[in-house]
Amino acid sequence: MFHVIVIAVGKIRNSYFTEAMDEYLKRMKPFAKVEIIEVPAIPFKTEGEIGRAKEKEGEALREALSKRTGRIFILDEGGREVDSSGFHKLVSESNEPLLLIIGGTAGLSDSLKKEYSTLSLSRLTLPHELARVVLVEQLYRAVTMGQKRNKYHY
Description:
The chain has 154 residues and is an alpha/beta fold. It is built from five helices and five strands.
């Protein structure tokens, strides 16, 4: 069984994003163990505060990562692009847990992006809440590829 841990900055505030994410998480239960861990978002009001917020969020992400082992990937629009089949290979190529990191409103600190491999869900910049929904849908697609029952990807 696949084991995926999504560590994300901030909470999902809009119920329609939560409902969509919960639906894919429910569908995935027979195929994968998925954990969603949220670290606090750091508020900022000015451009000058963005760097400080990203660094503090990065510290919280590192703390959450320090308690887990596995393959770690940062999700960033500048990361390596993979198609759904490539994402399936990435998810299924190891028995180690897969840890996927999603930044908050301001994105991720440069130091964190340099420390870990990056993947892109899209070259478009997605709101972090929508990125979580897209990620969970793609995880569902990836873990059900090759399944005879519950065929989702054709």
